[in-house]
Amino acid sequence: MRKHVAQITLSLVLSTAVSSSFAQGSNVGNTASTAGNEYLQKQNAVDRLAAVNPNTATFGIPLPPASLEGDFYLDSEFKEGSFELTVSPKVYDDMVIRYDLRSNLIEINYDDGVRGLDGNKVKYFDLKTSTNKYKRYVNVNQLKGSGDDMPTNIFLEVILDGAVPLYSYEKITIKKADYNVALNVGNKNDQILKKPVYLSIVDGKAIELTKGKNSNVFSLLPGKENELKAYAKANKIKPKDVEDYVAIINKINSMN
User: Where would one find the signal peptide in this protein (predicted)?
Assistant: First the structure.
């Protein structure tokens, strides 16, 4: 009943169609299917030539076009969660949702189908984990941060919420197919890759914590870099994983 009432209330802000990515995915599937059929027809023609005279089948045919492996979701499975709209202080809980990173769309799974909610209309959403805890993801537009390291049109996971916070988000890249026919190595399909990016906001400036092999985490508290490095060395902390960032930023907040 609560989900039914929430569905009616949300009708003004929900899109009437499923994410455009569904339509795009459908087109990709149709194109891949057609290309696959053409490929099989060409392969059958080669096989027929080989059956008549094997010496005539010495030429090759192009590989079918690459398809796309992976998805653009934070988690492709729908999870129990809740969210709050930017236009209202009301929290919609007991919802079943997932988040599309590419389109910044929150998909809501109702009994009668899936509807999409523009992420720009949402302050934050919470997702239930396998341990029955909740992770919070806040709209980047709700944070007072600026600079080149500040992402746009996305939600950030709140890992630490303090004077010096810690956030993360998934950065999407597409790895192109690199299959080598002669060597029979590599991947025949393009791949969707998702890599976590960690950042903090200090005095209104967004700071990405790792760029290349170096980390900016020790500079989050100016004038205390050497002390923080000594703390990390004494505790065998190398700033490269989220657990390392949590430990160092907790230390920073205890020094403030």
Answer: 1-23
Coil/strand/helix, residue 21: helix
Q: How far apart, in whole angstroms, are the C-alpha atoms of residue 78 and residue 127?
A: 9
For 192-201, write each residue's pLDDT tens digit.
999 999 999 9
In which residue are the tokens 């396998």 written?
130
Domain co-membership, 228 together with 132: no
- CB contact at 8 A, 103 and 18: no
Q: Which residues contact 3 (CB under 8 A, 6 or more apart)?
A: 94, 95, 110, 111
Q: Domain range holding 254?
A: 209-256
CB 73, CB 125: distance < 8 Å:
no
SS3 of residue 50 by DSSP: helix
Structure tokens at 206: 């967004």
pLDDT tens profile 45-77: 444 433 444 443 334 455 566 689 999 999 999
The answer to whether residues 106 and 64 belong to one domain is yes
